[in-house]
Design goal:
By secondary structure, this protein is of the alpha+beta class. It has 6 helices and 14 strands. Strands 3, 4, 6, 7 and 8 form a 5-stranded antiparallel sheet that branches. A 4-stranded antiparallel sheet has the order 9-10-12-11, with no helix packed on it. It has a 3-stranded antiparallel sheet with strand order 1-2-5, with no helix packed on it. 26% of the residues are buried.
Length: 353
């Protein structure tokens, strides 16, 4: 498509620029660094021989070397070139009239990755001094051809936008619109898809298939096939094997220290390390505040600054996300939030005596 003075082309071009330069797109800083580092790995050793071809005869007393010339250049690229180049390119597109002056809405989180669970919501922010965010959830561009707002476009008021677990997901399209100047930002488009749960029992259908449960029978969520006292729903939350009574995750001791930190000791026999078809090998982790000393068959964690109380509850995420743990008084919110947690309905609660 050749460049022309028609507005439609410039709008579509700007939308493509935004798609590829932001939010993990093909030309985003993250993607550029990944490609760059992949090439560096391939030629890392070959540079030793290649450096002999860089004109040592011009300075025989100080020949070019990998350590003296190549590695410092890589540091300069990492610290100066890659962090700035996208902003430079964006300004060039703006100067050429191929990218709008208004910045596009920031969407958090941008897409749902492997799928979202119950209670999921997202939010948006307008990075501009003026204008309003217009958006749709059905894939309709809020800007009509010609520049008028689409009649079905919604106006964002700063609230979190909740997506139903059984809604089938959403195709978000959002722009910032300045009604005074009639200008639009580039398009921010993100796809949100619910985690696959055919029978709506709160258990990922892939996990049910992996463990020989029926993904179309909601009743098996309450079943206890291995007679270990935990339902399939609880085993799903703890990422243990619902067919093996020895597969367990239990907090065996909780100690509150003088400095206010909480010391946990647990006994663990996880499910076989099978690769989950959607979330890969599930791993148990805790927040940054935890100091880990994991051992085979068990482990210890120090949770600094976490409130503790008798009968405290340990909250776990499903295998679709890293397992997080914290202690709090029953019914009382913790002061330290779960990173990436999307709603209480996506957690399971285990209260140990």
């Amino acid at each position: 498509m050749r460049r022309c003075g028609r507005c439609g082309f410039r709008v579509r071009f700007g939308d493509r620029v935004h798609r590829h330069l932001f939010n993990g797109g093909a030309l985003s800083e993250t993607a550029n660094l990944a490609r760059w580092n992949a090439r560096l790995t391939e030629i890392d050793k070959a540079i030793v021989a290649e450096s002999a071809r860089w004109g040592d005869y011009q300075r025989p007393a100080q020949p070019h070397t990998r350590e003296g010339d190549w590695l410092p250049h890589l540091d300069w690229m990492a610290q100066n070139y890659w962090p700035q180049i996208n902003g430079v390119a964006l300004q060039r597109y703006r100067d050429a009239g191929l990218y709008p002056a208004l910045a596009a809405p920031a969407v958090t989180p941008f897409g749902s990755g492997a799928g979202y669970g119950p209670g999921f919501s997202f939010s948006m922010a307008n990075p501009n001094a003026g204008g309003a965010i217009l958006y749709s959830l059905d894939g309709t561009d809020p800007r009509q051809a010609g520049g008028a707002p689409h009649p079905s476009a919604l106006t964002y008021g700063g609230e979190s936008v909740a997506l139903g677990f059984a809604s089938g997901g959403a195709a978000l399209k959002a722009r910032v619109f300045d009604s005074g100047s009639g200008e639009w930002s580039a398009l921010a488009d993100a796809d949100f898809a619910p985690r696959r749960d055919f029978d709506q029992d709160g258990i990922d259908s892939d996990w049910e298939l992996l463990h020989q449960l029926d993904p179309e029978d909601p009743g098996d969520a309450a079943g206890d096939g291995d007679f270990d006292g935990r339902s399939a729903a609880e085993e799903f939350a703890a990422d243990t094997d619902p067919r093996d009574p020895a597969s367990r995750f239990e907090i065996t001791q909780t100690t509150v220290r003088a400095d206010g930190s909480v010391h946990l000791i647990w006994s663990e026999q996880p499910a076989p390390r099978l690769r989950h078809p959607r979330c890969g090998i599930a791993r148990r982790t805790v927040g940054r505040a935890a100091k880990r000393d994991r051992r085979r068959g068990g482990g210890r964690d120090d949770l600094r600054g976490r409130p503790a109380a008798a009968g405290a509850a340990v909250l776990h995420r499903s295998c679709a996300n890293p397992l997080m743990a914290r202690e709090a008084a029953p019914g009382a919110p913790s002061k330290i939030p779960f990173r990436g947690l999307q709603g209480a309905s996506s957690m399971r609660r285990f209260v140990r005596p």
